[in-house]
Amino acid sequence: MKFLEYYGLLGIRHKDIDFFNSDIYQDAAVFIDAFVITSLTDPFCLAAKKSIESFFHEVVSACKLNNMARLYQLFEHASEPNETNLGLRRKSNYGKGSTSEELSPLFLEFYNVTCQHLNPNTGPLFQCMYLRNFDADKMSDLITNVIRRHLSEFTVEQCRKMGIPLSNYKVFIGYYWDIRTLQWKELFEYVPIVDSEKKILLVPKNIIRKKLSADVSRFISMYIFRDLQKWHLTNNTPDCHYRELKNGKIKVYPPTKEELEKKELKNVTHKDYARNYSEGCYNCEQEFFNDLTARIRNGYGKISDEELDMMIDRNNRKLR
């Protein structure tokens, strides 16, 4: 059942609202994209961006000091949230969602590998795309916790706008990242509650994606391989192809992206390959970062209102 349908608000489509009208009983396979948040300039994203950047600044600081106690504290509340009904319902090796035991060593290992080559212009959030065993679902869960206060404020605003009742008193929703104390804090706030117990947080529809925008596979194909093709042409390597034109001149072509994929990605993961290449070529990563930021501001990856409607309608039909 859709959130609005539960409150008797029928016939409202996503073109009429600013939030994702999620199914209250079933998770939707979409994710909160942190890089989208940090790229957009609306009031919600600007406020949430401060929390995200503050959190990752503390993560990097803890890694620099090899401070595992601080890292465990930072990832103490990275578990799977239930209020947004987004992502893939799962169980980790340590229980529900991600935990400090999983994420602290992961981020420390990543920092230790890349500390000499971190690109200060793109920042740690963007470079999370290189993290092993850290998928869109885990990132979305982590970011949901970090920006929970902003989601709560957005939810209250939207519910009041639509006349949706909130709890009679402030209830404990979860933890959020506090940029003043640089600690996790408990969040008590008014919230819509369905079936007398399930708390709901609404999510701005413009920050959700089917997959994260900072995608390593696209980075490799569109930027790294293009850079390699230029290198092959400049150096006229044996991997280039030659074709005689009608006028007798020889035209040189670089290896195709398919050929590069077979050669470059043999016995290496996409994430490790992209990270290793970027360590020696900041320009590629910077170009991807700049292009992606600009494209997001022009609507890249945004799920259309019609797609969101179909997604929720399809989920409802499956439950019937």
In words, what does this structure look like?
With 320 residues, the chain is mainly alpha-helical. The chain contains 13 helices and ten strands. The strands form five sheets. Strands 1-8 form a two-stranded antiparallel ribbon. A hairpin with a 4-residue loop joins strand 4 and strand 5. The longest helix has 22 residues. It is globular, with a radius of gyration of 23 Å. About 2% of the residues have low confidence.
Short description:
The chain is mainly alpha-helical and 320 residues long. Helices cover 48% and strands 11% of the residues. It contains 13 helices and ten strands.
Helices and strands in order, then pairings?
Layout: H1 3-6, E1 31-32, H2 34-39, H3 43-64, H4 68-74, E2 91-92, E3 95-96, H5 100-114, H6 123-127, H7 136-146, H8 148-162, E4 171-178, E5 183-189, E6 193-194, E7 198-199, E8 208-209, H9 216-235, E9 241-244, E10 250-253, H10 257-264, H11 270-280, H12 282-297, H13 305-319
Antiparallel strand pairs: 1-8, 2-3, 4-5, 6-7, 9-10
Helix pairs in contact: 3-4, 3-5, 4-5, 9-11, 9-12
